[in-house]
Design a protein that fits this description.
Keywords: Signal. With 158 residues, this protein is of the alpha+beta class. The chain has a five-stranded antiparallel beta sheet. A three-stranded antiparallel beta sheet has the order 4-5-9, with no helix packed on it. Strands 2-3 form a two-stranded antiparallel sheet. A hairpin with a 2-residue loop joins β7 and β8. The longest helix is centred in the C-terminal third of the chain and has 30 residues.
Length: 158
């Protein structure tokens, strides 16, 4: 859990306090906004100009707004987050400015591979179960090394 917390802190995010999204805690520079659809919401677009089905994070923004897929939470740093069985994942969504020139658009991961309309760019994925396995393996290896040293010390003493 500590390794996961350090990873998330390195990303500027707080470690999860439970597996539910509603229990997430956010540092002051991030806001938690649930994306929700509205009939009057502006449309969202991928960097190549194609329309996406994402939902605007700030429909009233005059200079573009990041958009996230339904069920994702919008961060004020223009990332979208989702809590799932495999952990928490972060994505760069789309934008309400079709030209992507607006200041509100998420201007990262814009290479041709990550700008495709069929997928959002995965920024980071904190997989808790994988982290736990890695920590357990490290602890087990340390315990085995300690036991080996103890055995050698006892053998040398006799």
């Amino acid at each position: 859990m500590r390794a996961l917390g350090l990873l998330l802190l390195g990303l500027g995010l707080a470690a999860p306090s439970s597996s539910s999204v509603s229990a997430l805690s956010f540092p002051p520079h991030l806001s938690k906004r649930q994306s929700s659809s509205s009939a009057s919401s502006p449309r969202c677009y991928y960097p190549n100009g194609l329309e996406s089905s994402d939902i605007p994070c700030n429909a009233g923004a005059s200079d573009g707004s990041p958009c996230c897929a339904k069920g994702y939470i919008c961060f004020s740093n223009k990332l979208c987050v989702r809590e799932g069985e495999g952990g928490r994942s972060y994505h760069r969504g789309s934008c309400t400015d079709q030209s992507w020139r607006g200041e509100g658009c998420p201007r990262f991961c814009l290479t041709s591979a990550t700008a495709l309309p069929t997928a959002t760019a995965v920024i980071a994925r904190a997989t808790l179960s994988a982290r736990r396995r890695a920590v357990r393996a490290t602890v087990a290896a340390a315990a085995a090394a300690k036991e080996t040293r103890s055995s050698r010390s006892r053998a040398a003493a006799s």
